[in-house]
Design goal:
Elements: H1 2-12, H2 20-28, H3 30-34, H4 41-61, H5 65-68, H6 73-93, H7 103-120, H8 152-157
Length: 159
C-alpha cells in the first residue's frame, strides 16, 4: 500500500505513464481484466498489485532470519523484485514498456520498490526496547507488551 501511494504520486507528476499492474492486466492478461466489470477495473488493478506485494512480502519472510535482520536486506529485496519484473515478467508478457527506453519511469519504479523493501524489511531496532531484560527474552513480561517489568506497578512492587 505504501508503494501504491508512491506510485500515485509518480503518476501524478508524470514520472510514470502507466503503472506496471495496469500494464500487466491490460496487456499481459487482458482476458482476466475483461472479466471484471468496467467500473471496477481500477479497483481490480489495485487489488492485483496489493496481492502481488503481499505475496512478495510473504516470500521475504521465508528468507533466513539472520539475513532479514540486516537493514539493507529489505531494500535490496525490493530492488530484486523490481529487477525480476523488468527483466523477466514484462518481456515474457510482451508489455510495451519493456521494449522502450524510459529512464525516468524506471527510476520512479526503482525508488518505490526500495520503499517497499524498507516496509517489508524488519528494522534491527524493533527488538531494542527492553532487549536487556533480566529473563533474556527481549524484555517482555510474558504478555508480549515489551514492558519487561518496568511499568509503574512493577516499580512500586520493587520489580
Amino acid at each position: 500500500m505504501a508503494m501504491s501511494g508512491m506510485r500515485q504520486v509518480a503518476v501524478g507528476v508524470g514520472a510514470i505513464e502507466r503503472t506496471p499492474p495496469d500494464a500487466v492486466l491490460k496487456e499481459g492478461v487482458p482476458l482476466l481484466l475483461e472479466s471484471v466489470p468496467e467500473h471496477r477495473r481500477s479497483a481490480a488493478v489495485e487489488l492485483a498489485h496489493w496481492g502481488y506485494g503481499a505475496t512478495a512480502g510473504a516470500a521475504f519472510a521465508l528468507l533466513p532470519a539472520r539475513l532479514r535482520r540486516s537493514r539493507l536486506t529489505g531494500p535490496v529485496y525490493g530492488v530484486a523484485v523490481w529487477g525480476l519484473f523488468e527483466v523477466a515478467v514484462a518481456p515474457v508478457l510482451g508489455l510495451a514498456h519493456a521494449r522502450r527506453s524510459r529512464p525516468r519511469e524506471r527510476w520512479a519504479l526503482l525508488i518505490d520498490h526500495v520503499v517497499f523493501g524498507f516496509v517489508v524489511g524488519a528494522p534491527p531496532e524493533a527488538g531494542i526496547a527492553g532487549s536487556d531484560g533480566p529473563d533474556g527474552d527481549g524484555g517482555t513480561d510474558g504478555d508480549g507488551s515489551g514492558a519487561g517489568g518496568t511499568g509503574p506497578e512493577d516499580r512500586r512492587r520493587g520489580a
